[in-house]
Amino acid sequence: MYTTDETTPRLWTVDEVATMFRCSPQTVRRLIYVGHLRARRLSDRPRSEWRITDADLRAYLARRA
Predict the structure, then answer these.
(1) Phi and psi, residue 5, nearest 5°
(2) Does residue 44 fall inside a structural domain?
(3) Residues spanned by the domain of 15
């Protein structure tokens, strides 16, 4: 799940992860806030968007298995 140049990992939005997990975006945000799903903010602004890497998604899913 990499971009076309194969060097930059794909960053997923909260909405994209919610679609994959078949849950609401609020559920994904809750997983982030409680520390179950690692994510990064795009900037230091308080309401900036979260992004989740492939590695963080795989780690979360591995812990759930």
Answers:
(1) -85, -5
(2) yes
(3) 11-64
